[in-house]
Amino acid sequence: MRHPTPKATRHVNQNEGLIFEKSSPGKAAWKLPPLDVPEIDTKALLGSCERKDLGHMPEVSEIEIIRHFTRLSTWNYAIDLGMYPLGSCTMKYNPRVNEAAARVEGIANAHPYQPERISQGALRIIKTLSEFLIEITGLDAITLQPAAGAHGELTGLLLIRAHHQAEGKPRKKILIPDSAHGTNPATAAMVGYAVENLKSDSRGTVDIAALESQMNENVAALMLTNPNTLGVFEQEIHSIADILHAKGGLLYMDGANMNALVGKVRPGDFGVDLMHLNLHKTFSTPHGGGGPGSGPVAVRKMLEPFLPKPVVVTKPDGTLAFDYDRPKSVGRVRAFYGNFGMFVRALAYIQANGPDGLRQTTEDAVLNANYIRKGLEGSYDLPYSTPTMHEVVFSDKLQTKKGVRTTDIAKRLIDYGFHPYTMAFPLIVPGALMIEPTESESKEEMDLFVEAMKSIAAEVEEDPQTVLEAPHCTRVSRLDETAAARNPVLRWKPKV
Ligand SMILES: *Cc1c(COP(=O)(O)O)cnc(C)c1O
Fold first, then answer.
1. Among the atoms of ligand 1, which is closest to the Cα of residue 88?
2. What is the value of pTM for the model shown?
3. Domains of the chain
């Protein structure tokens, strides 16, 4: 336990005023040498644009600024501080070798408008990463343009729509299991499809009989996450693909959980027609505040003509070029070529690990999730006993008897020095605690986590109030989350 008895510190309990109002007249963090060139006539230069009122800039010394921002940085949690067990998000370590690669001068300073002739290295990075991801997914072609997973879903559904339109048979419906991530139905609705819910069976996987009865010629595709959001592998995936294909539908895979599959099985081999990857999940590029994300979409051959343009092609002389002449393309989905800096990082990760390393990563991710499952079984209710892949979903059923819910347990976990797990998702588990350690965590870190979670379970029995009022060691405790979302205050404003 990192904070067995939470204690307030000077950085936590000072009042707002002392922390943010540091300005006093006349202080400055800079000092310029005397002017040794003629003074510019700013009036003539700027005219009416000259700014006279500096808007109450704080007047502070250098050390005050340094301490202020350093202190603020310690109020955030980060993967560089400890385990980040957000299920479904795959919050793995972002290796420093990725950053070194992304900062190589020619890469970091590449400009999207520079001519192809002097962009061959950048084009090679796009092409090489594309080839690796095609190999990993077992599909035939790919676009790296989408900026995140949900954007990949949007791109994928545009491709599905274009495919059915080209066949002369536009379709109206998308089937989505009740365990799906909320972005799936939202994306389908955005593209103009009606969403039909598909219920899960007692194992937590697709109910084959339900799929058979709901599948018809009006269904464009099934959007399926595999392993699904319970961390359970869809063992009937071949039959699922056959049922769809028999009636002309496509199988879209939400690849957010690829951390359980890379190097072991390939979606293209089990019937998937197209899928997105989340480079910021599976391929170790920064996730969250640091972003940006990247959500490549890999497809089967028949969907290739519809991919966003431009695509990278090899010219007869062996050099690489962007091909914009793609008459069937759904068009651009993103400015330029996507989040290029993330391609560099993902490529560094893939190359640093190699095929054996990637396979080992997958095995370790699954092993870690099962280690945590074993450690917490008994302390928390496990609604589905189906084997766990890379993440495990418990429920708060045992704790609700004392009036404590998943949110309260998550808040208390903050006091123990961990980022909360994913709460209340997937929806098919009431009061879900969704935990994904990833391969990054050591046995020692996971033991600390299990110990913290068991300690909270004991607190719920003995002193539920402590858990209900958590967190106790953060600068602010429970926030009005609706107000924070609806009326965000995103920057400091001077008191005038
Ligand atoms: C993360 C996630 C998404 C959305 O991906 P973003 O990159 O956050 O847009 C979709 N589905 C599942 C299952 C996810 O875990």
1. 15
2. 0.90
3. 96-351 (3.40.640.10), 363-485 (3.90.1150.10)
